[in-house]
Specification:
The complex is a heterodimer of chains A (580) and B (124). Chain A is α+β, with helices and mostly antiparallel strands and 580 residues long. In chain A, the strands form four sheets. In chain A, strands 16, 17, 18, 19, 20 and 21 form a six-stranded mixed sheet that branches. In chain A, strands 1-2-5-4-13 form a five-stranded antiparallel sheet. In chain A, strand 6, helix 6 and strand 7 form a beta-alpha-beta unit. In chain A, helix 4 runs antiparallel to helix 13. Chain B has a domain of 86 residues. Classes of the chains: A alpha+beta (580), B alpha+beta (124).
Chain lengths: 580, 124
């Protein structure tokens, strides 16, 4: 079955198989023009030729590896892995159906959403990859720069364009950065990978301070919009919180300022040591004042002569993101409350999985990809098709992927929420645990990843199975728990309130616990609490940690992180290691 | 008379593994220089000299674009056959993860390596 037929069947709508699988009407997102389409065609042809040359022996693996990586192709434990870009986490329903089609045709019927708001397939054959990319192109997606030492997918608030607490919609700025950074010739071979995140809301839902460049959209005293610019954040083996380099950047200079930062890094960044090549190390070794001075020097040299986005082009991009026409309606509050009272599951879902929308009568709905005993971030092809259908029926065909490995329907009418919850429940997608202890971020770990030292997924499953009482989970409240299978920290364990790092201890899997991390605007890096635990012990250790918190908190409003910051590590150490 | 050549011992016997270039799946080097997806068929080296010879053999087929990334790894010998040591190679040898997401039809019988945790041992 072709992609078009698959989408047609899934959508059960009129469809011409000769027409391209265009985005549903009225979705507020960037749409490819002829230029985008042509360069992606060229890129696919280029990769196909590179694969053929590799298979013919004209390219060695050493020569081929950086080329495949820049197209998102990794070689893992059991198979190749293909990582696709979801620009700033935004998808439309047609794209989600295409992802389902790819999962069925080229993979084993599922995909894995990542902490970079992307999706990974774990089982494609190398020879199938050009064909997968051709299918993706039909729905305006690609895998360019999802790996390699280049500028990666720009990430952002998954509630962008919908959240009541945002100053403005950050997506047009993300799109401008995406277009500027895609195949940017000067920055194709940086010392190391480079990640940019943009936030415009009060809450930081994109962990921006752990990115190489963090852009917080703010308003100055004159009411003008601009960017607060941070540089040098990151995780991995050396977690660092990004440092402020500019209090206010006028938006027209965004690209020339980014050029100056990247150029300074490209010149100073170390290429002699893989582990010291990220910009966080460059900033640390150079000193933030000196690094900022060099950036400003370069920026002042190029700001008026270098590249800044022409206003007309900016307006064209912004037009793609104009807010949809929301229906003005009064939802039936009495009926809504009555359904919550009658259905515990719905009550928890509303409490934890919805967020205030900027439009009265609407809400933002998070779909947890952390069902009881499930694999964090994994979703089957059938579930993808269902989410696409629900997006068409209830969310103006829009879907978002979050850095916590969940999905979001950004524009749901409150009156539709109950039926939506019922449909999600049937598909095992209605876990009401967003922001709770079982909303675990976990990397693929040693089950898939060639870099991992220990398994992450079975640990996440055991913790989720142990903490399966929704009443207790809600009592514990707002806690983040992240599990990485190695020090590369793909699951952001450093910045979780409770972090778990899998290590290899003399051939055995061992799990080190950190406490007190935060990925929000009160960013902090977790501290190791003591010696690690075996796979058999780790759930008990988490139980102990949560019991210390429950026994020690002053009241139900004191969150786990607030308690930790007040009490420190001592009570946890005493309980975990019987230290008097 | 030249002194007898000292053959360096290995801590454990080793086999050689790689991934198929086209599919990426795990394979093991057999004594005849061909590859098998079953570790039980793999050739076993007991000393450094044998290990070097196996890696050289692997290198020949790596140059034919059949496999990629060949390396040796520790094994233990059970009933004369190699079995993997260490979780990474145990998982590779099975060819599938220890957990089964929706969409995978066959559940590996060995999926739960860990026993259920005894939370009470850590309760305060």
């Amino acid at each position: 079955m072709s992609l078009q037929q698959s989408i047609q069947q899934a959508a059960q709508k009129e469809y011409s198989p000769t027409a391209p699988a265009i985005a549903p009407k009225n979705v507020q997102m960037y749409k490819y023009d002829q230029f985008d389409d042509e360069f992606i065609t060229q890129r696919i042809d280029q990769l196909r030729s590179q694969i053929n040359r590799r298979l013919a022996g004209e390219l060695s693996e050493d020569e081929f590896k950086p080329l495949r990586l820049q197209n998102g192709v990794y070689l893992q434990l059991h198979a190749y892995m293909l990582r696709l870009a979801i620009p700033y986490g935004q998808l439309n329903s047609t794209q989600m159906r295409a992802l389902a089609y790819i999962a069925r045709k080229y993979d084993k019927g599922f995909g894995h959403f990542t902490t970079r708001q992307n999706i990974q397939y774990n089982w494609p054959a190398l020879s199938d990859i050009p064909e997968i990319l051709e299918d993706l192109q039909k729905v305006e997606m690609h895998a360019i720069q999802t790996s390699g030492n280049c500028i990666r997918n720009t990430t952002s608030d998954p509630f962008a364009g919908a959240a009541a607490d945002e100053l403005t919609d950050p997506r047009p700025w993300c799109e401008i950065i995406r277009q500027w950074s895609t195949l940017h010739p000067e920055f194709a071979f940086l010392p190391r990978k480079f990640k940019i995140a943009v936030n415009a809301a009060e809450q930081d839902r994109a962990a921006i301070l752990y990115h190489d460049v963090a852009l917080q959209i703010i308003e100055n005293d004159q009411g003008e919009m601009g960017f607060k610019v941070y540089v040098g954040g990151g995780q991995g083996r050396t977690p660092v919180i990004a440092k402020l380099v500019r209090e206010f950047l006028e938006p027209q200079y965004l690209l020339s300022y980014l050029d100056a930062i990247l150029r300074t890094y490209n010149m100073l960044g170390r290429r002699d040591n893989l582990y010291k090549a990220r910009i966080k190390i460059t900033v640390n070794e150079t000193g933030v004042e000196e690094f900022s001075r060099l950036v400003e020097l370069e920026w002042n040299r190029i700001k008026d002569t270098g590249f800044n986005l022409p206003e007309e082009q900016k307006q064209t991009i912004f037009k793609h993101f104009e807010l949809p026409e929301f229906e003005l309606h009064q939802y039936d509050a009495e009926k809504f409350e009555s359904k919550k009272l009658k259905n515990n599951g719905f009550d928890y879902f509303v409490k934890n999985n919805t967020f205030a929308h900027k439009q009265d009568g609407y809400t933002i709905v998070s779909i947890s990809l952390k069902p009881h005993g499930g694999i964090p971030g994994d979703i089957s092809a059938d579930q993808m098709d269902l989410v696409a259908q629900l997006a068409d029926d209830y969310s103006l065909s829009e879907i978002r992927a979050t850095h916590r490995q969940n999905l979001v329907l950004p524009h749901v009418k409150l009156d539709d929420l109950f039926i939506l919850w019922q449909k999600l429940t049937k598909a095992k997608l209605a876990a009401g645990n967003i922001g709770l202890l079982t909303d675990i971020i976990a990397c693929p770990g040693l089950d898939y990843c060639a870099l991992a030292n220990a398994r992450s997924i079975p640990i996440a499953q055991m913790i989720a199975e142990h903490f399966d009482d929704m009443k207790k989970l809600n009592d514990l409240g707002d806690i983040t728990l992240n599990i990485s299978g190695c020090i590369n920290a793909c699951a952001h364990h450093h910045v979780a309130n409770i972090g778990i790092l899998g290590v290899d201890k003399k051939g055995e899997e061992s799990y080190q616990v950190t406490l007190g991390g935060s990925s929000r605007s009160d960013a902090d890096i977790g501290k190791i609490v003591g010696p690690g635990f075996s796979g058999d012990e780790i759930v008990g250790a988490i139980e102990t940690i949560t019991n210390v918190y429950l026994a020690g908190r002053t009241n139900n409003d004191e969150t786990f992180l607030a308690y930790y910051r007040r009490a420190g590590q001592t009570p946890f150490k005493e309980a975990l290691y019987n230290v008097a | 008379m030249a002194p007898a050549k000292q053959i360096k011992p290995l801590k454990n016997p080793v086999s050689v593994t790689a991934n198929l270039l086209l599919k990426g799946s795990t394979v093991y080097l057999k004594a005849d220089g061909t590859w098998s997806d079953d570790i039980a068929n793999s050739a076993i080296a007991h000393d450094r000299e044998q290990e070097t010879a196996l890696l050289a053999l692997a290198n020949i087929t790596e140059k034919t674009q059949y496999v990629v990334g060949a390396y040796s790894f520790d094994v233990k010998i059970i009933d004369g056959k190699a079995t993997p040591l260490g979780m990474r190679e145990i998982i590779r040898a099975k060819g599938i993860p220890t957990i089964t997401p929706d969409g995978l039809t066959s559940k590996p019988e060995w999926q739960n390596q860990f026993t259920k945790s005894n939370a009470s041992s850590h309760k305060i």
